[in-house]
# Entry
Amino acid sequence: MGKIAIILGATGLTGGILLEQLIADSSYDKIKLFSRSSVASTSLKVEEYLVDLMQLELYKEQFIGDEVFCCIGTTALKTPDKITYKAIDYGIPVSAAMLAKSNGIDTFIVLSSMGANSKSNLFYSKTKGQMECDVLAQNVHHTFILRPSLIDGQRNEYRLGEKIGKIAMGILNPFLIGDYKKYRSIHPGKIAKCMKIVARSKTHEVFLDSDKILTIANSSAS
# Structure
């Protein structure tokens, strides 16, 4: 019998690519999506739950599976209110990790970001860092935290600052070598593939920066 995956954030860039990869993977029989809006997938593997992610605990009975992939995230531009931002970037992943632990799910993979630090003076970095700490505090046996640099992909919404950043990183990437490789921009398809690989192998480090994400994604595993 194949595995059941749970994805939070399948309507986003990385989550959407991950969904397509899991649909194509014969080791998964079912993919449960917890989202505010539908992805309109035609795959028979996909089971959608259109819910209020701020109240994820209300769906404990449906939150059953083998692995949780949390790709939730927003931006300061999209969510300028800091209380709402924290409820999304901190609250949803931590609630998901709590449910995973409570329901006996032993694999939890969450998308964080480079610079995450619970002691940072920067609100956004601090929020991501606090999220990481409290996700780990749930003690889900196989927990992996991915910390990519700038994600280089085509989003549905236009982000001027991000577009400028991508152009700059496209020029700088070849010069970022050695210890600076982790600052290179990375394609969301590589992030999704890495998430899939670590979910299966369960042998990698807990924290994975962009350079390690890319190495895993480019490995012989698929």
Remarks:
- Residues 164-169 have pLDDT under 50 and may be disordered.
- The CA atoms of residues 134 and 213 lie 22 Å apart.
- DSSP finds six helices and seven strands in the chain.
